[in-house]
Amino acid sequence: MTRFYRGIFIVWVALRYGLDELVLTSFQKPWLRIVARVVSIGRNLDAPRGQRLREALERLGPIFVKFGQVLSTRRDLLPPDIADELAWLQDRVPPFPSAVAIATIERAFRRPVGDVFVQFDETPVASASIAQVHFATVRDARGTLREVAVKVLRPGMRRVMEKDLALMAMMAGWVKSLSADGKRLKPREVIAEFDKYLHDELDLVREAANAAQLRRNMEKLELVLIPEMLWDFCHPEVIVMERMNGVPIAQLDRLRAAGVDIPKLARDGVTIFFTQVFRDGFFHADMHPGNIMVSLAPQTFGRYISLDFGIVGTLTESDKEYLAQNFVAFFRRDYKRVAELHLESGWVPVGTRIDELEAAIRTVCEPYFDRPLKEISLGMVLMRLFQTSRRFHVEIQPQLVLLQKTLLNIEGLGRQLDPELDLWATAQPFLEKWMIDQIGPKRLFAQLRAEAPRYAKLLPQLPRLLHEYLENKPADHRQELLLLLAAQKRTNRLLQIVIAAGIGFVLGLIVMQFVVRVAVF
């Protein structure tokens, strides 16, 4: 019965904000068009459709707000005006009562909040769709007083989430069966993707683990600060982390007045993003301005401060390699290679004509390369590419959707900081260096070093394993095996000669390079 009433309320909100005209008007059946006209009588629908959708999601509550945030990343499925409006759904949820937050903390740690914290500020400093944050002071394991931020999950989120997701899935089925665009928009797949992200965000320990991983990865880069997690005070509903002090990145006037080098800040943001993506394959996928501050402390002046790690993206080695090659090929305007990479990676169906895909990609990209690079909008290029991808049935990879959304965030942030920022020119040297590192001797030696323990364990066992194999093998096959071993020995000798020649060649190059440098200087 509760689900029924919730469904009635959702339908009422949808009609109140005119969301029916976004859906019903695309239906083919005449009676549904009549319904669309009837329900639109007497309503004021002067506001743009994207604005009405955003306001309706806010009225429906935190789960729908989060759904709007995730849906805004699927720009391959949405008209630009709706995607742009949904992108504003960040940190606009009213806070829940402090008494409820305290009750959640006491239930998680099974003791009064006064025993957990030396001091706890009941007024929240931030509130989002999933959780809110309070400042506090805690005594750590060494007895040191530390200022911390306490993130508390909204109460009853899992129960509300399951009900709302069930209703969303049901409505997605209606849209898919009744709407002309239903199959192309893949509403069920979008809801399933949202379900995954939301379940991940509801476990705050998972977020703490994401933060710890990013902190280790970024420690030596010295461009970004990530709060330390206090593991003795972490629970699925409550996490406690180092309190970070900085200026929100949107407050550019304060940053300029403090002497922060804004263009450098923009370039550093690009470096951080590409380092996380291509070096680590583990990146912060929710980098909107509300999650970014800048440190003004003397020892870390001008560094980014990253917050909120509920959504992270991961890439496999294969993903990273194909993405890097795609970017480099774009920079070099090698559209045929871009098309080949799409086929090799399985992103387009087997049998796709390379020349047709190459021509389509050239049509999208070439007009932008005819302009100065600083005027190129990577976001616009991606939008055009997504439109092209539908024609060639390119499969949208979930991890690449997160990457695309984050890249758009980075470009938007970079242009806000420095309108002259050349995102592609900033990224190109990084990617070309990464490609060289992937195929150069450093990479080879690193792989050999990583595999050395396995080889060291396996090599002493080879004679025994070979002896046991020969003993257990039928007699008529032994002669064949002995011939194979003899051939293997000859191959090994040849391989040793080749390796020795290769080492000699490399040493010769090093000596020659040294001689040239001495001669020059």
Automatic annotation (TrEMBL):
InterPro entries, per the entry: ABC1_dom (IPR004147), Kinase-like_dom_sf (IPR011009), Prot_kinase_dom (IPR000719), UbiB (IPR010232), UbiB_bact (IPR045308), UbiB_kinase (IPR050154)
Annotated GO MF terms: ATP binding; protein kinase activity
Keyword line: ATP-binding, Cell inner membrane, Cell membrane, Kinase, Membrane, Nucleotide-binding, Transferase, Transmembrane, Transmembrane helix, Ubiquinone, Ubiquinone biosynthesis
Coiled coil: none
Keyword hit for Cell membrane: yes
Source superkingdom: Bacteria
Annotated Protein kinase domain residues: 102-495
NCBIfam families assigned: PRK04750.1, UbiB
Sequence similarity: Belongs to the protein kinase superfamily. ADCK protein kinase family.
Protein name from the UniProt record: Ubiquinone biosynthesis regulatory protein kinase UbiB
Species, as recorded: Variovorax guangxiensis
Taxonomic placement: Bacteria, Pseudomonadati, Pseudomonadota, Betaproteobacteria, Burkholderiales
Name of the gene: ubiB
